[in-house]
Each structure stands twice: as structure tokens, then as C-alpha cells.
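Subject: complex prediction, re-run

Hi both,

The earlier run crashed halfway through, so I resubmitted it with identical inputs.
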Amino acid sequence: MPKAVAGPEIERLIQLLARLPGLGPRSARRAALHLIKKREQLMAPLTDALDTARERIVICKACGNIDTQDPCTVCVDPKRDPSVIVVVADVADLWALERANAVNARYHVLGGTLSPLDGVGPQDLSIDALVSRAHDPAVTEVILALNATVDGQTTAHYITDLLHNANVKVTRLAHGVPVGGELDYLDEGTLSAAMKQRTLI
Amino acid sequence: MHWLDDGIVLGVRKHGEANAILELMTREHGRHLGLVRGGAGSRMRPLLQPGNSLRAIWRARLDDQLGSYTVEGLNLRAGALLTSSHAVYAVTHLAALARLLPERDPHDVVYDSLESILNSLDDPATAAAHVVHFEMQMLAELGFGLDLMSCAATGQTDDLVYVSPKSGRAVSREAGEEWRDRLLALPAFLAEDQHGAPSGVDIGRGFALTGFFLSRYVLEPRNLGFPDARAHFIAAISRVLPNAA
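This time it finished cleanly. Structure:
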């Protein structure tokens, strides 16, 4: 076991930082040292920001998004099209779509995808709430923006079956060649899906 | 220790940020898990989708370790299956059934059947018949094979229309008439080599038959229920073939 080179408070800080995604023990040590060196300029505001976030973060009861208000900023935005719901697996996917400025609609965060291997069933996801939202007469389209994986598409088909009786158009994202993708490097599955879903120019 | 084998992806689970634990149904080494370095990355993810066939090299210092896989795609069919509901449910259901087999126990017939079924999931009726056959094969591999070749009471080999829920053996129409309410229906496509796709009613009877024995002899003793994907697959089939549910 390596010898401790700092007090227990600093070691604890390093251990906690090492739990963050993208950080290992070495990079956590570097981050901790950086924070300690910039105690006033960085560590104090970061501590305040973490404290505030911890106290104020809530899950939106309508869509499952993370925000500091409930309903969330997306749900209360009057400029968004209330007739379209974009279904995503996680908040990270919502943020990705917002970054891309791809759609001006409201969202529904499922909280994951169906996965028998990980023991995730329909009861573990926010599917009932989605079905109830889709039955709102104001909603005309549900876009299933789920991963192009077997788990993601199993979830998409499951939701499509459940929305069979709702008076909404159910659509999903296209599968195909990514921007910058070279055909001879693409897997056969993607090529096959892209060929099946080719569009008229 | 190392070996090279062909395998079908049954499932994959992230391990840490960059790696994944891959579950393969291999031809010679059975259901086998291993770590794929970089398996959670965007380059490897298309390969590691359930239903894809891969060529895998497994390496470990000792035989009983998890070991690591190096994989290369052989038939990346998962992408083509994603748009069809019955196909994705079938892949999930077949993987759940294969997961009932003990790890590292070779079952080359299961591998060959999986390979064959996954290549013929386009047509719902054919896919459904294949899945029923696969469930029967899984019963046999797990030690509860049904004997549908001859009548348990008379030994006759024709006009077999029932199956005894006690013995799992076929019963002819004549011999079973008196106990017909207690016997399970044997669909024609399981009793004899039938050309062409079976009817929705026969598919439904096939699932009822295999479902009964899977539930009683395989799932209940393990304190398990049917995978959700089975019911979803049957529902997807019944939208195309009425009476299959």
C-alpha cells in the first residue's frame, strides 16, 4: 500500500475526485492539487456551486429532466412545440439533442432502456408517465430518440406497442451513415440500415 | 490459456468507463464471458450488439479467470434487425434462453440453431416456428426433451395430436380422446416435417406446449419467470398471424 503523502482530509478529497468519470487516482491527485493551489479562485466557488446544486436540484415530475425547478425549464418554455414529445433514455441524451438544437419540442426521460442482462424491466423506467402524457389531446407526435442498439430499439418497439391506442404519430430517429463516416469502415449493420432507409435526393 | 472460436453475442455490460464484459454463445466453448478492452467505446459498440456473430480470441493466465476477448465481426446482422419488432424481441428472448445454459459447457447444436434462426428472422411465421423449435431444443439440452416421435400409449407414429403434460411424450388422437381436456395440443409442424410456414393457431399451440414444459421443469425450479421478451415476441407475431397468442 502506498504511503499517505497528505493529511486524511486531502486523501479523502483525492479519493472522492477519483470516483468521477474520466478521473483515475493519478488525475484525481492532480485535480486535488490544482484545487488546493487555487483555493480562493476555484475551490471556494466550486464548493459553493456543489452545495447550491445539491440543495436545489430536483427531478422534473412531468418529464424526468434534471433542473433546479419543477416543472423544469424545458417543460415551462412557452416557445417549445407542446404537440411533440421527444423520448430519450437519459438526461445526457436530452442535453445532446439540445446542444444540437435539433428539435424545439418537449422531452420525456425514461431513465434507461430495457435490458434483461442488467435486470431493467418496464417497471424500472418512466414508461407509464409517458403513455399518460401521450394520451393528452394536445400531443400529436412522439419521437423515440433512443440508441440504435438492441436494448434501445427493444424499448422503442415496446413503447410503440403501448402507444398503439393513443392518437399520436410515433416516429424514431433514422439509422445510417454518420457525418464523416467512410463506407468501407462502417459495420455491415449500419450500412444495411442506411441502404434500407435511403432517401430521395 | 487461449483459444479461438466463433460466437454469437448474447449480451454486453459496461465495465468501468471504457471496457465491457461480453457474453458469447460459442460453438466449442459454450456460453462464455470475457472482458473486451475498449468495448464501451464507439468503435466496438456496433460489433458487440446481441445477435451479431464474431470470431473471438479468448486469453487468460488461468482457465478459471474471466479472461479477455479480442473480437472481429463475422456477421453483423443486429443493425438490420433493429427495425423489426418481432426480430429484436426474438434476439432478446433467444439470448435469455441461451443464458439458462451453464457457463463454459459446450452446446454446439444450440450455437448452430441460434446461427440458423438469426439468419431467418425476416419472415414472422418462419421466425416463430424456429423459436418454438429452439425452445424445444433448449428443453432437450437442459435434460427435459420431449418425445414427439411416437404415441406413449400405442406406439403408433402417425396421427399424433396431443402431448402428455406428465411424460412429455406424444399421444395419438385415438388414444388421447378420452383425456383430451388434460392433454396439451401438439401442432402439426412439431409432429412431422411440414413444408411451408405453420398457421397462427399452430404457432400459438407450439408456444403453449414449450411454455408449459419450460415453466414447469426449467424456470420454476430456478425461481425464474418467462423473459418479458417472449410475451412481446408472441404479441408481435400475433399482429401478423392472428391466433398465435
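Chain A touches chain B through 26 residues (CB under 8 Å).

- K.
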